[in-house]
């Protein structure tokens, strides 16, 4: 099964089947999971869905920056922007993904970028302007969400134009450009929609670790 038959890969170089990079450190990857999605709630219950995503991401040490519902090639989907500590180094990794869940499987388009060199400059500048009282805010998806990376206005999209080279800005922009170009197979689109599963801990989005040979299901259209 190859649910994604094409997408705009302008500016990207293939590193292995299903994974590409650009010249500025973005990693684009596509995934197919032939099992019931582990989302914490169906898309028709966005408050429960976003709350569950935020809690599980925080429990894993990261932070859900924002989530929203939308469509990928007319199919209902959920977008997540997540930040996690950079493995083995300073700074953070920012991950953006669109998950397209069906009743028995799902496909995901993910973009990620890590901070490098001097880290935290965006956050420090915005914190200096706003002060800590305005900078740090309760999590928008539930006051009971604790742990992980703190939620703050420095991650808001309104700052992206001022920090065009920041990895979060570039991840947002890449998703905005690429997702409208994704084409899904008609047999995948016609599958029954995802209606939820028994309660389980959602696996948060994590940085891609390329493993050659495991994405044989994917081909470019």
| Count, helices | 5
* Structural class computed from helices and strand pairing: alpha+beta
What form results from the Cα inertia axes?
globular
- Give the spatial strand order of the biggest sheet: 2-3-4-8-7-6-5
Question: Which range best describes the helical content: under 10%, 10-25%, 25-40%, 40-55%, 55-70% or over 70%?
Answer: 10-25%
Uncertain runs: 209-221
Can you name the CATH architecture? Answer: 3-Layer(aba) Sandwich
The number of distinct structural domains comes to 1
Share of β-strand residues: 25-35%
> What top-tier CATH class fits best?
Alpha Beta
Main sheet record: 7 strands, antiparallel
Residue-averaged pLDDT: 89
Distance from first to last alpha carbon? 13 Å
The string of secondary-structure elements, in order, is EEEEHEEEEHHHEH
Tally of strands: 9
- Annotated CATH topology: Protein Transport Mog1p, Chain A
User: Rounded to an integer, what's the Rg over CA atoms?
Assistant: 17 Å
